[in-house]
Amino acid sequence: MTHTRGFRKKWALATIASGALCLGGCLHPNLEEHSFIDDSFLFEHGSALSVAYLEEHTPEFAKQLEELQQWVVRIEVQHSASEESYSSNHGSGILLGDHQVLTAKHVLHENVTGKISTILLTQPDGRVLRAEVERHGAEDWTLLRVLQAEGAPVLKHSPIELGKPTEGETAIFFGYPARVGLSPEGEVLPFLKGDAQTGSMGNALSPMLVVGSVLNAKAMTLAPLAGFPPVGGMSGGPVLNSKGHLIGVQVSVSKTTDNLTGRTLYYRINAVPASAVEL
User: Fold this and answer.
1) Whole-model pTM over 0.90
2) Which residues are CB-contacts of 30 (< 8 A; sequence separation ≥ 6)?
């Protein structure tokens, strides 16, 4: 479901608050006119700014959001599960054809030890799937394969194709920051997990988006144009160009902050280029 209407409401709030929260003043000088906010501002406002930016500058791209975001998934990787407890990692990914899901390799293992017990994927509509590791890349990417239980509804075929980035082109990065997403009304809500085995649904939450410009096509880095600095939980999220092609998988953020205030002054989104992924 498209959340443009909800985004527009948030955009109005963001516009009213922009003077107090310094939308332009916290930017690197070359980015002063961009619709960027620092990480003290709420995530839904960042997504609203991103949508508004696309509608103004690349309206045809904005029309694709409903189609593109339905293939983005939340990922929970459970480790060393027991009857009492388990540890887990969280990230984002995207469904590809042939029941594959692309994410960042570090989503599966960073800061967690022990054997992977379960990988859960939650689609934006709340449907929960289980997956297993198909293969890791030499760079920071991993392909998962969706496990289809007998009698389960047939998984829709993803139309997402890999593409090549072009320096200077507009791109969008989708992800789920800090284990939250956007409700159909545009509210930020935490994950409510479903169960792939029983078929119970999680809550329907759409990913949030950050708009950027491809700064370095070979290294796959993005300069921000609109949105907020990505945070934990967005790792592994897809970077898509205006054709809807997957051009990278997000792996980290390079950020510079003000020593006095801690405010973000400048950041870059770093991704593994899709050309490095072996399907």
Assistant:
1) no
2) none
